[in-house]
Amino acid sequence: MAQIAKTKIALIGVLLALVMVGLIACTKKNTEVGELVIGISPPFAKPLQVAVDEAKKQGIQVKLVEFSDWNTPNITLNHGDIDANYFQHQPFLSNALKETGFKLKPLGKGVATHVGLYSKKYKTLAEVPANARVVVPNDPVNQGRALLLLQQAKLITLKDSNNHLSTLQDITTNAKNFKFIEVEGPQTARAVDDADLVFSYPHYLRLAKTIDPNDALILDDNTNTRYAILFVVRDDYESKSPERADQLKKFIQIYQTSPAVKQAIDDDVGEKLWFPGWK
Fold this sequence. Notes:
signal, about 20% strand, 10 helices
């Protein structure tokens, strides 16, 4: 019996040693992979930082680099200076690839947010007067999204009511003769202080602190994950950097499943203003 007990103890010791070797090897591999670098837009920083902190507990090192515009993140990624970026949805990415010829692709999905029409001057859409100044994004994709929302609000009609790439030239009815002002997407949040009616995004409004994102005169009724923000990489990322790609996939999974990250998104965006784009 004593011999059997000794054998069992020895076996347990071997198993524990193997487990420790595996953990050390995994940690060493994570260290060898090095720090992942993800380019982001500032409004997404807080929840992503929570994901970074959660990933660090698993030996995954991630650095976030903020960009203030919507062009540089793809240029930087295409040059290979960062591992991924997180700021754009699929329609925006598709248009960017068409215009630049960059070889980029989504590796995973993040949050999808509702968008709204906002005003500090008027409490209802009915109050918005004729000849009002209405701010919309100047890029073709987000401008189309803004026009669809204006159509949903019955303020305009479009040539094709289902075209998510509609432009100002596609407006067929503008009963109140709105004067449209085109600005860069991130600047719509600042325009709330001056314009009569503004199309904008909850996360940018919360960052700018110009108006409560919950105070939209109308929110879009779209729950299509087409507008989910994407983790985008180069086309050859997985083949040229398989270990880094594996680590990035683990980070994306942490972002999608961590209760701490979900709470951070609820706090940062607004519980009723976002939904998971990966489902």
